[in-house]
């Protein structure tokens, strides 16, 4: 029976640690923007193509 008390106290301690870690992550702004990363993943190729266009320079030879 004492094993149940030990396991229960360990599980409650771990749950409290994870809850505190979650609260600190929320306070630091970890979960502020949940929409932009998913959209950025879809349009990442277009952003890379647009950035490469201005960097290409064509030299004219006479």
Automatic annotation (TrEMBL):
Superkingdom, taxonomy of origin: Bacteria
Pfam families assigned to the protein according to its UniProt record, in alphabetical order: FixS
Signal peptide bounds: none
Keywords, ordered alphabetically: Membrane, Transmembrane, Transmembrane helix
InterPro entries: Cyt_oxidase_maturation_cbb3
Family matches, as PANTHER family: FIXS PROTEIN
Organism: Psychroserpens algicola
Bilayer-crossing regions: 6-26
Protein name: Cbb3-type cytochrome oxidase assembly protein CcoS
């Amino acid at each position: 029976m004492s094993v149940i008390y030990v396991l229960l106290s360990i599980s409650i301690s771990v749950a409290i640690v994870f809850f505190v870690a979650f609260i600190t992550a929320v306070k630091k702004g970890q979960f502020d923007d949940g929409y932009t990363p998913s959209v950025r993943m879809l349009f990442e190729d277009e952003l890379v193509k647009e950035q490469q266009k201005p960097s290409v320079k064509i030299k004219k030879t006479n």
